[in-house]
Write a structure and sequence with these properties.
Helix content of chain A is about 40%, strand content about 15%. The first copy, chain A, has helices at about 15-20, 35-50, 60-70, 85-90, 95, 115-125, 150-160, 175, 185-190, 220-230, 235-245, 250-270, 290-300, 325-340, 345-350, and strands at about 1-5, 55-60, 75-80, 100-105, 130-140, 165-170, 195-200, 210-215, 285, 290, 300-305, 305-310, 315-320. In chain A, helix 2 (about 35-50) packs parallel to helix 11 (about 235-245) and helix 12 packs parallel to helix 14 (about 325-340). At the A-B interface, strand 1, helix 1, helix 3 and helix 10 of A face strand 1, helix 1, helix 3 and helix 9 of B.
């Protein structure tokens, strides 16, 4: 049964594995102080087009989030997140476990807005309440949407004016930066945020995220903090090799573009059969609204995630494609929808108003 | 320049890489709920000879330590460690960062004793002091020594009598259980401790440790805690595949035995040239006491760690072998010592009293 | 200018001061292990009508809250609070600073409901989210409302069924238990909750709260935890003497009843002049909705807190009475309203629909 | 039975109680923003002879310690304390509970030295170990000894050179600054440390400590942090009134001087009977070494604390005097020793070498 559950179901892109094989018996220094980490950092800096950034490789996303947030906030300070933000909902209180409150603000299609941030600031008026000091956004968001340059600039501006640290969770930044609606590059991200990470796990690596610290005053002693949170792996060079493979050429973005392309095809099929979407499809995660009856059938051939109930008869599901999604999976899905249409059920339940 | 710095300088044992290749395009469930983790757990249970243990795969050692200690202690409780214990000295306060004091006790060759534990208990008499509730030991220890079954049983007994949780850090448990002086197997460890981990990183894996929870009341909700500390990797199956490779047959112990054999050869060479050791050599980490002049030369050909100053003229260094140490490295080291001996300097500074 | 800002503007009830004078040169054991704490506990147990409760005296309310919540939860567990709950809004992230998320649920007039609790439980389905384990309520609530016995029993029942700890913040429990709508006594609170505190600070003490732990398995080692959070005062007997004074007879409830009576008079005056309330007035905190123009005048004679904006022309304010509120303050307020009415402005802006 | 157990056995100095009575029905703003706190701060600034310090009143000492240390350190940083330091030994891991390791250094009569600090710095060389960032000392120390100006200056200098925050726990600073060997005033403390507190609890207040932050960059947002740790009492003015009473004239130092004088008398009596001391007696805590047989008798008439076992026949005890110690207690003690001497036992066990 093919799974559209997520973008971390397969191992690593073959070129990563080849490179791990190639360097397997080379001896490397421990804890990320090796030549592969060094090279990978150089390659990433080329894309970022800034030399004065600090780059660290961290095993996973939740770990990166808790590390960044706990390192840069004083005890009384909080982070503002969209109510759909991963740190608020899906990290088992990892941020709170480091002592910091996550204050949520209403999101628009998974995106935070300057107005929502301002409202949080207005509300937190005195020392009886936590002090907002950081803004957390994801790009692409948990709903697969992306920030435009204009939107990110607006958030950048309010953060700058209000002395807030802007942190961008880039677990799926590849997908964001290669989707059709996107108007930014990695260098824009580096200019408009104080700290962000480039996700490896969800874009072809075995594991690992590349954290990029752009703001000078946030760089100090960061390796101490990585170590303290258990995120300084002895074999740091394994992370280095993977990001070397991903960024020595354009591989990282090619993989993400493939994921997006596959999602687009899936979205097309679904639209063609008359179904609409919970949010406009854009990157490699799409959220069709499908009749429950159709889902009963879909479940027999595909794995997917149930996002939320739409109404009594329809459910929002999440379909995710990746660097590894094969054409056959798309073909199989297309056949499924055509078969369902022929049987007359599915199509009639489409509401005709595809997004 | 060959490095005896540590046992995590190379990638992974080829059979692990092969297996990662083999399953690379298979789709697996996320977060460790896949068939490879399941298989790896079954294989490990065969060695442990217990079925009622819970096994979890964690990316790294410090993370495992902080996770275990913070999960099982209440806020006012502390963990007792040898003064040489990794959690006390080399984890950047990772344990304290979760809120718990590490109380140290004097060690004998890196090992904790029931008497030392009892002294800590006696001292911590009332609610103005932290309450000792866990004992942390490493096997092999940070000095490369091992616990005998008798010694571990004695610690097990005091822990049982005093209602202390016994946690064994097995970052190098392979090396411990395959060294000549050892009289235990994995099943003994599982019987005599409440929780322990089997280190992958330092014995042939790319990364990863297998945590084994033996005591029933410690098992509950543990996946929540893994997630909260950022240790629940999305691609948990990569950890599963690695431990599957290590434990489907005897590979894990073969690798460790090789590391030990190489260390034994190194120790032999050093002894033959008249030098003694800081602690009796036993596993894959040995601590020769060498003249500073000799070290000046050694540094030109080999990488190693300086452990401590012995006296004005001699220094204790740490030499570590691994599953990957090639015979040529040993030969090269032998030649070095012979050459030095011929040049007349090194040998005369040997103190003749090899341990 | 008279202040209706809060119920902690004055010192202590004279009988408390007298008793502090009386015992001033008596030597007492430190850290709450003295005869006055012992007596105060006995007196409180008489009201609670249970002998198997543990009582501890804590300097302040926020400290009590953070202490209770952090002591009884494991790291991955959270506390459910009404969105108006003090711990969620007004304690500068004190709970999160101990590592625990506060999950909020919509409140009805400041009160939590079983349905709201059930919804939180339903939502928190797996180990990627924090695990609800405690319910926090306040009685009287932050909006001055109270729980009926039926309501509290319903919450007690869901907590029991779902294995949740029920914690009641009784900063103003005196006011709750002596107001006209109340149908409970302290013994009911002790039967229906697992742990609660009896507020001293807001009902006549210089400072101090009496924490009552009802559930057997929550009692263990609690003094360690008090000490660790810095809440075990050396001169614990000063707390003991105060609660001895408050509970040796009915003083505690007399003071609270006086506060309620004064609030009732204030509410009456406001109603008589045609104004309504944000929530039905009940205890010693009332929330009239007043015209902004009237407030301009009120501010010249009285201090009060602005709660929230009602609409363009009206604001909700908070008026608080206490054990110390003098009749003159009420008279002065009455005169103010009469004067305003005569001047014709205020009265016409009353909406006629007093609650 | 008279108690020499500690200096917090009695209530408050009568002038404090009088002042609490005097202002009891005055309405004051909450949370320390009242006129009495303001006045008390002015009075303290007169003694400190600096106007640019921030002063906050905190309920207790452990709370002050955990608040200061957790507020000024980043997560990976630790505090250096003498091995006898209160934060290391007697606060139930309060500091670790906020996430920070307490690294101990050997003390000389309870005092930390620049050499001991330097050794800690030398040892903590890289990011695998916590980073020392604060030095904690007490004056007077836990052994009743004091720092001379020269000694404190030396510690100040190393802290300045190494960018360490110097924090002085002044739970008994009154006693330190009024003892005969002292050569400092409060203004010297304020010049030589970055932050310190003036203990009220152990010198005549009901409770409360005055925290003085001298260094500009440590002042920011401190009230948030006080609130978060539960240390911002609603009736902050009760603390203000007490410190107003203690510092409006010289009362604070008079009380401390009395405690010292009483201790001196006690020491004299003990010396005269031929006993020596564990550390040279100096302030209001003295540590005589007494024969166990004598202690059996002493216990029948006086309460005291056993500090440590000296040898098989002798024990070190702690005797503490205070602002409240009456002359009769001294007389009674003198009679005890004379009676024991007459009975021939006690005196002969004196070792003749009084310190």
């Amino acid at each position: 049964m093919y799974s559209f559950m997520n973008d971390y179901s397969e191992g690593a892109h073959p070129r990563i594995l080849e490179m791990l094989m190639k360097y397997n018996f080379e001896q490397n220094d421990g804890y990320g102080e090796d030549i592969h980490c060094a090279k990978a950092k150089e390659y990433i800096k080329r894309f970022v087009q800034k030399d004065d950034v600090d780059i660290h490789f961290i095993p996973g996303g939740t770990q990166t989030n808790l590390l960044v947030i706990s390192s840069f906030l004083r005890p009384h300070q909080c982070v503002i997140s969209a109510d759909t933000g991963h740190i608020s909902v899906h990290e088992t209180g990892a941020i709170e476990a480091t002592g910091h409150k996550v204050v949520t603000a209403p999101s628009v299609n998974g995106k935070l807005t300057p107005d929502a941030i301002q409202e949080v600031l207005d509300y937190h008026a005195n020392e009886h309440m936590v002090q907002p000091k950081m803004v957390y956004i994801s790009n692409s968001t948990e709903l697969g949407t992306i920030y435009t340059k204009e939107e990110l600039t607006a958030i950048h501006n309010i953060c700058k004016n209000k002395d807030l640290i802007l942190y961008l969770d880039g677990a799926r930044i590849g997908s964001a930066l290669t989707c059709k609606l996107n108007d930014m590059q990695l260098k824009d991200i580096a200019e408009l945020t104080d700290v962000f990470y480039i996700g490896g796990t969800k874009n072809g690596a075995l594991y690992g995220e590349a954290l990029v610290i752009c703001r000078e005053d946030l760089k100090k002693d960061f390796r101490y903090l990585i170590k303290q949170r258990g995120a300084l792996l002895a074999k740091g060079f394994i992370l280095g090799i993977q990001f070397e493979a991903l960024f020595q050429d354009n591989l990282y973005f090619e993989l993400a573009a493939n994921a997006n392309m596959m999602a687009e095809k899936v979205a097309m099929i679904i639209k063609e059969h008359g179904y609409s979407f919970y949010v406009p499809p854009c990157t490699n995660m799409i959220f069709p609204i499908l009749p429950n009856k159709l889902l009963d059938e879909l479940s027999k051939e595909f794995k997917y995630l149930i996002e939320t109930k739409m109404d009594e008869e329809r459910t929002v599901i999440r379909l995710v494609t990746s660097w590894a999604t094969p054409h056959e999976a798309i073909t199989q899905l297309e056949k499924f929808f055509m078969r369902q249409a022929r049987q007359g059920d599915g199509a009639r339940q489409g509401d005709g108003s595809s997004v």
